[in-house]
Amino acid sequence: MSDANNFDKVADAVLRMVAGSSLLDISEVENAGNKTTPITEAKAELALRRVDATGTPDMLAAWRREDKTYRGGRPAAVTDRANLAVGLMLAEERSPLLVSEFATAFRTRLTPGARRALGVEQVKVMADSNRDQRAWYARCWRGIHSILDTFNAWPAPGQVMSLEERNAALAARDPRMQAIKSVRAREFTYAWLEMTLQALPQEYRDAWKGGLSADQTAVRAPSQLMPWRRDHELDGSPEVPNQWEVIDENGDKTLIEAPRPVLEIDATPYPRNKSKQDKTFKGGDLAYEMSYAANITMMVTEPGQPLAHPQLIVSASLHRFGRSIAEHTLAGIESLQKRGWNPKRLTVDLGYSAGIAPVNFHIPLSKMGVQLVSDYHRSRLGTHQALSGGALLVEGTPVCPATPMDLRTATKDANAGTITPQQWRERKDRLNKFALRPKEKVNPDDGSQPWMCPARGLAPTVKCAIVEMAAKAKADPTRPKVHKSMLPGHLDRVCKQHSVRMEAEELAMVQPMKYGSEEWAKTYSHDRQSMESMNAHLKAGHGLHESRNRRMHGLAAQSFVFTLVIAAANLGRINKFLSDRAAGVEGPTSRPRKRDVEDRTRYRRWSTPPKVVRGQTTKEKRQAAAKGRKTVAAPPVPKDHVTMFSEVDAFDSADDTATG
For residue 637, is pLDDT > 60? Predict the structure, then answer.
């Protein structure tokens, strides 16, 4: 009897068992336990409208013409539109984004109307369900990879590779091709996000005030096979493989390279504890996981106000760790402006202000007209740098050169514990009195701007011994006074002129919201919490960190899946926001967290945790008690030992007496 006949007999037996059970369903068995919910015609048509609104089918066709990869022939059984529509529907229902899930959806979940809408009603259905599933898998695999090929800037064999094979695959990549297709990958993602933003009713789009928050987060790679540690002192940071000592039949010892197969060659070992200061991979596997870097920028509401619009992702990209996060963030904001949006502020964490040169991030961002709100690394707190005309820059605030030193070092002193948080806030308020004020708007030609001394103008904030106060200036007894002894030995232009012009490069380092002020604290806290909430929503709510739901290998494939997930997350947030509005809900219920009320949280500035005394088990208590008894009741000294010491003491006394 043939194997086919045996298989058919077993299949018939299984079907009879399922049919005889009241707790099993034949459709669930056919779908191997995956979802069996029918996809209706209305659902398919909605997904197709969304795909068309992205413009990506036309983008893909244009990219193929540009690459000259279309050779004619019979049209594909599953079009780009159909594959993208099914992918979006799977992402919205939070199903695993696997090729097998695409195939199952096409084969068993589409209603007749949905099959017509997606253009697959003419596809032949095979009598053998197993062969039919394999055929659909092949169609979907070819269709998805045809999409990926248009923006795959990181080609690599879909198999595990040795170190030699990894180096060969990386060396075979064309830099020109990579420059073109990496931009395409971002544009593909931007197009999907813009579709979701356009789905938001105009009233709520207009309610956005221009606030953005950006962050880089780790996305776990499907394969966790890790490379060797790298030597960052050499060009290209090559891997440093371990070696095996091998003894041949003659007893001679030789060293050979130990095998280290890797599948995801563009992923990077990233520490599971993201607060780890030194993120350099040193070869240990347990504390690290292979990850891609996701740069996400989202629109945020205004702090302390009801939610005027949903907080949505406006730009994002997936790339390798170690590449410039500034480049991806700036590219996303530039794309947002080209799409007709008007961003005004960007809130970022220490990763942007500590490790990126101003010329690569701060200055380009300033030229875009976007104000930066950021915290500072400890090494940059309490320091000052000289600006044009003799002014000083202290933690993003241009101040008078006569600013007292204790005000300049307020944050540094607070970190050292020499002043209390309340004293820090008071000193920051006093520091802001010495801050220079802009006199005119920014010059659109060169980006410069004139700033005036705080003792000048109709609303001076300090009283200086060498500046005559304006006659119309209001009297203020709390206004700080600058004596001649506080002034620098050499008076620069900021002290002699009514104003001094600061160049664009200097303005890029100025924070419009004065660092440490109440306005800055509220804005920074609100925007960063919104960003962390979005990261948690993507990873926990949409399974972005569950790599088993994204088993498509390669950076381009992961970027494709990442795009569908964040687009679905945006649509879900819009639906939730509109549902809340219909129910009369204008924002989340504001209740203090219990750990904050009980002062159990340590995630705040200058939090001082109490000294921890480790609890003891019963065995440890017993051992400690026994040790204490030995200390109190010392063993008796032998009699002859006592006599010896008595004799020594007697000799010592006699010697002392004789000497005296």
Answer: no
| Through-space distance between the first and last CA atoms of the chain, rounded to whole angstroms | 120
Cβ neighbours of residue 50 closer than 8 Å, sequence gap 6 or more = 85, 88, 195, 199, 571
Question: What's the rounded Cα separation, in Å, for the pair 544 and 547?
Answer: 7
Q: CA 507 to CA 366: how far, in whole Å? A: 8
| Amino acid in position 257 | E
Long-range contacts at 59-63 (CB < 8 A, ≥ 24 apart):
59/184, 59/187, 59/188, 59/191, 60/147, 60/150, 63/150, 63/151, 63/184
Residue 646 clears pLDDT 80, i.e. is over it: no
State residue 234 phi and psi, 5-degree precision: -105, 155
460 CB neighbour count, 10 Å cutoff: 21
Strand-pair partners of 297: 214, 315
Reading the block at residue 489, the tokens are 């030995």
Residues 86-128 have pLDDT tens digits of 999 999 999 999 999 999 999 999 999 999 999 999 998 887 8
**Residue 435 DSSP symbol:** B
256: how many CB neighbours lie within 10 A of its CB? 10
Give residue-wise pLDDT tens across range 331-368. 999 999 999 999 999 999 887 766 678 888 888 998 89
Relative orientation angle of helices 175-199 and 555-582, to the nearest 10 degrees:
10
Element (H, E) at 139: helix 129-151
Sign of CA dihedral 38, 42, 48, 53: negative
- DSSP letter assigned to residue 269: E
For the four alpha carbons of 334, 336, 342 and 344, in that order, the dihedral sign comes to negative
CB burial of 532-544 (b: ≥16 within 10 Å; e: otherwise) equals: eebbeebbeebbb
What are the backbone angles phi and psi of residue 191, rounded to the nearest 5°? -65, -40
Name residue, tokens 């007894």.
Answer: 477
